[in-house]
Amino acid sequence: MKSLYLLLFALLIIVSSCSTSDDSDNQPINEIQDLLRVQELENESHIIELYTSSGKFYTGYNHISLRIKNKISNQFETGASLTWMPVMQMPTMQHSCPKSGIVKELGKDTVFEGFIIFQMTNTDASGWSLKFDYQVNGEQFTVTENIEVFQHAQKNVTAFMGSDNTRYVLANIGPAQPIIGNNDLTLGLYKMENMMTFPVVINYTITLDPRMPGMGNHSSPNNTDLTYSAVDNFYHGNLTLTMTGYWVLNFQLLNGSNEVLKGEPVTDENIQSSLFLELEF
Amino acid sequence: MKIKLIAAFIFGVIPIITAQNTEQNIAKDTTNLNEVVIIGRKSLSNFRQPKALASLDEFLESSNKIVMIKRGNYAWEPSLNSMVSERLNVTIDGMQIFGACTDKMDPITSYVDVSNLEKVSINSGQQGTEFGNVIGGGINLELHKEAFSDKGFKMGIDNGFETNGNYKIFGVDATYAASNFYLIADGIFRKSENYESGNSQEVLYSQFQKINASVVTGYKISESHQIDANLIIDRATDVGYPALPMDVSLAEAFITSLSHTYTPENLYFKSLESKLYFNTITHIMDDTQRPDVPIRMDMPGWSDTFGFYSKAHYNIQKHHITANLNGFYNRSLAEMTMYSTIPNQPDMFMYTWPDIRTLYSGIFINDDIEINDLHSISFGTRVGFHQNEIARQEGIESLKIFRSNVEQFNNRLLLSINSNYKLSLKNYEVNAGVGYGERAPSVSEGYGFFLFNSFDNYDYIGNPNLANEKAYEASFSIKRHFKKASLSLESSAFYIEDYIIGVIAENTPSMTIGAKGVRLYESLPNAKIFNVALNSNFDILPKLKGQTVLGYSYGNGSDNNSLTLIRPFFYRAEIIYRSHQFGATFQLEGNGNQTRYSSFYGEDQTPAYAILNLNLSNQLVIDNVKAIFKYGVQNLLDREYNTFADWNNIPRPGRNFYINASFVIN
To answer: Yes or no: is domain B35-339+352-665 CATH 2.40.170.20?
Structure first.
């Protein structure tokens, strides 16, 4: 066994040294520049490398880039079709979370991308596993491993029951870097159809009232309600931030008939909506 | 402080000591609306100056044309022709300098002291455009200079004490003059505790402390070439502002210049003075002395200005031509850090002036034409290029919250023109003038971000796209000389288009805790301002004179709201006794009821008041020491009052005994 590893190791060195010159020509090595590796998922034939900008998974929206490395050729696969399934193991049951499909990243040869919105985690980051089913050159593969999902410092995702007795997940997608000024606030809204299915909710309205509890709970001017965009399947509205610091984004969720499903207006008596997310910059 | 006593010494003749007003008083040789307030040591022995060590603010307040707006006992804001900072051009010896406080806690006049100055030139309306394009007028604080002479060494020591506020003043100055060199060095220290209003009510946060030092030196290279250099360091600490929610822990200025003067032996070409200058201001607002604030915050501001001017005098036949080419570059930056009321939450931060750069360059030309002994006429113009730049992207983004079109650069061309006619008859002097002027918005008006105005309780937001404010102006004055008296009437009227003012933004939440809302700087279609004053002087006995001033001002916007800080009916009367060694002035001054006030802009009605002041002075000469004592009592009857010019109705000082002792050693 040991000698087999040794042999493989030697082979690896040879292959990699042989292909060095080729790498610079047909495989720009900077396809994952500015990204940090989170984890590798490995089966007998492939290693799937997962990347995010922080190098970790957090609760809320995670934009994930990935590459599939062929363990034999030591090359990254350029053509593949993938699906994924994140699963949270609870004491008595298990459930998934909202996620996108996986597509080839535009302009890149070996990098695929998608996003997962973890709506919760355990305090020690445990509980989640991630399963990939994928096809390369007509051949079907699968790989599953536990992943660590850390609690984000701010509440950037919320799961709640609407007055229509439906469970929803609302997550902050962007801006990744808020500015003092106008921000394109982007939210993802999903319905929990069952434990494993979270389809996008379309054509609802989300009212917006940002507040700073640390300074008299003041608001900001010229915010707009969020509406659904079929282009990216997210909700968009204008969020104005007048200063840096800790903001609470208060929402009300309205369905297509403008019935309030969740949330209340912020008033002197009610300083926060029951439907809110946090932002800090 | 309302020590109006002061000596507003009007060049030439009888200083008509009125209180502050937008009205004018006249110098004998000119009947126009301009005025010079003499400040320097040379006028020390002038008995009309009630306090030799009065602050510059008090000196200005003694002028007939200036009203001082008060937010406390320090750093008053001058108002000329019923217009304040944004509409005035205040310069120090022709140098542009801009305050670093977003809340106007540091008018330029707070960064110099009387010990630095020789005189203050006040020029009304378009006659005040020598150093910049303005609407209301120009105030130039002229630094002292010494003539080249063989006088040698001279020094002076000043001591002052006032009972109200336990106010102490100590100053020292030394002068050395030789035939080709002079040097003046001076320093002054002022410290006051809280003053008491009438009936001994302590006005909290009215203390201040300031130290100022300056050096002026000149060297004569040849008969026609001279170089002068100047440095002022001014540092105020622990300044309270009873009318505002915050105080100032530091207001510091460093002001310096180098100039060259060429005075050729030429029949026509009289002089060419060129100056390079730099000044930097640091202003730190502070609320740590206030026990109870809704939120703690730091609000520092900085203002740096580089500039130059080159000024020439040319006389040909009946023409006296002045030309001034000048330019400056200013950087204004102010920020605000708020400490969350919830523990462990991050600090909140914003730029209130997002690093605004102002580049200005312009030329001024004025021609005084003496047609004959009776008639003279003048024509003046200034054309300037004015550019603002938002140097921080954060500034552009934050202003875009309120307006979609915010450009990094904003260029303006500014024009000023004026003409004045003067008729001098045996017993009459008549002066009539017309003018047109434009100004650019100030940094706060153009780019301020959530500037809290405690006067009307609104947050203000700047507007980079404001149109130039334009003023049409007319002035008229007439003076009649009688055998032992004179009577003069002076008036000025302004019709201002695109008058910049804060307009309430509906449904816009304020940032400041407790503020009523947000106002955006916008242009009113027009506003009208009118000022009139009636002055009289009369001899009662050879050494006893009387003076009176009556004044009224009016200001109204096209939205039919009164403009703010417009003085109601005002009067002052005084009796002056003067002999060689002793002088006395007994003074009555007051305002009528403020019937026109702007509740829309946070003003309330100020009731009528009247106070009495008594000022005395003695002069002694012993060997080579001249001692001058000035003493008296202000607000003799200890009236509890405030005037229209007191921000948020802070009460003025009650009875105050003062003494100033000055010693000049030759």
So the answer is: yes
Alpha-carbon dihedral angle through residues B49, B52, B55, B60, given to the nearest 10 degrees: 20
Q: Give the Cα-Cα-Cα angle A211, A215, A218 (nearest 5 degrees).
A: 35
Q: Which residues of B touch A (CB under 8 A)?
A: 294-295, 336, 338, 340-342, 345-351, 394, 396-398, 400-402, 449-450, 505, 507-514, 518
Using CA coordinates, name the residue in chain A closest to B450: A242
pTM for the full predicted model: 0.89
Distance from CA of B354 to the nearest CA of A (A): 11
Q: With left for phi above 0 and alpha for psi between -120 and 50, is residue B136 left, alpha or beta? A: alpha
**Cβ separation A219–B402 shorter than 8 A:** no
What is the total count of domains within chain A? Answer: 2
**d(C-alpha A274, C-alpha A276), whole Å:** 6
Domain extent at residue A259:
157-280
Chain A residues whose CB is inside 8 A of the B348 CB are 212, 214-215, 243-246
CB-CB contact of B507 with B513 (8 Å): no
- Of B456, B462, B465, residue with least CA distance to B512: B456
Query: Helix (H, G, I), strand (E, B), or coil: what is residue A238?
Result: strand
| Dihedral angle over CA of A96, A102, A105, A110, nearest 10 | 110
Cα–Cα distance, B420 to B378 (Å, whole number): 5
Nearest to B175 by CA among B38, B59, B41, B37: B41
Contacts of residue B10, defined as CB under 8 A and 6 or more positions apart, other chains included, come to: B16, B25, B26, B27, B35, B36, B37, B64
Q: Where are the domains of chain B?
A: 35-339+352-665
Residues B215, B233 contacting (CB under 8 angstroms): no
CB atoms within 10 A of CB B612: 15
Interval A38-94: pLDDT, tens = 999 999 999 999 999 999 999 999 999 999 999 999 999 999 999 999 999 999 999
Q: Which residues of A touch B396 (CB under 8 A)?
A: 181
Owner of token pair 């495989």:
A27
Amino acid, res. B82? S
- Alpha-carbon distance of B400 to B330, in angstroms, equals 23
> Could you tell me the two tokens for B103?
């809340």
Q: What is the pLDDT of residues A177-202, one digit of tens each?
A: 999 999 999 999 999 999 999 999 99
A 10 A CB-CB count for A91 gives: 5
Encode burial over B536-555: b for 16+ CB neighbours within 10 A, e otherwise.
bbeeeeeeebebbbbbbbbb
**Domain contains A259:** yes
ipTM of this predicted structure: 0.85
Q: How far is CA B364 from the centre of its chain?
A: 22
With CB atoms and an 8 Å threshold, state whether B340 touches A214.
yes
In-domain check, residue A2 = no
Measure in Å the smallest separation between the Cα of B519 and chain A Cα atoms.
12
- For tokens 């200013």, name the residue: B330
A129: domain CATH number is: 2.60.40.10
Q: Which residue of A has its CA nearest to B295?
A: A215
Peptide bond into B264 cis (omega under 30): no
- Interface contact flag, A245 B397, Cβ < 8 Å: no
Q: Which residue of A has its CA nearest to B398?
A: A181
For A39, B283, B649, the CA distances from A146, given in Å and listed in that order, are 10, 57, 69
* Whether the Cβ atoms of residue B262 and residue B245 lie closer than 8 Å to each other: no
pLDDT digit string, tens, across residues B196-242: 999 999 999 999 999 999 999 999 999 999 999 999 999 999 999 99
| Selection from A177, A132, A169, A156 nearest residue A58 by Cα | A156
Distance CA B124, CA B89 (A): 11
Whether B401 sits inside 8 A of A213 (CB atoms) is no
Q: Among residues A88, A60, A84, which one has the least CA distance to residue A195? A: A88
Query: A215–B394: do the CB atoms touch at under 8 Å?
Result: no
